[in-house]
Design a protein that fits this description.
This protein is mainly alpha-helical. The protein has a domain of about 90 residues. It is built from 3 helices and 3 strands; from the N terminus they run H-E-E-E-H-H. The chain has a 3-stranded antiparallel sheet with strand order 2-1-3, with no helix packed on it. Helix 1 runs antiparallel to helix 2. It is flat, with a radius of gyration of 37 Å.
Amino acid sequence: MNVRSAASRWPVTCLLIMLASAADAAQPQTVYRCGPDGRVYSQTPCADGKVVTIEDSRSDQQLKAARDVAKRDAQQAQSLAEERKQREAAAAGQGATGIKAPPVESPASAPARKTKSKSPRGDPNMSPPMRVPSPATATK
């Protein structure tokens, strides 16, 4: 499938889905209120479920206005997508501007690191730890 043809069909597909859902929403729908405390809603019957009928109370004029808004939003989305594609095409050969990477130093030219001298462990006023031979070396 061609990517461009799929991208150009996207707004039309969205519009059709919105119109189909708007037409479907005009019909009363049955929903079931389920669960021990009735906080779960389902479109399929459930044990101890109570039927709740949901109707769209909007007038035909309000439904038409909603469809018009959805159509206008889909057209605006298409327009914005086209503008974005044009900007991306114009910027395709450009790199990032204003960001300069620091020069990379090779390890040979890097400054020598200072090494820390090992300091004696613990408090210098205390005696060194006692070393106890292991039982295997004590029996020899």
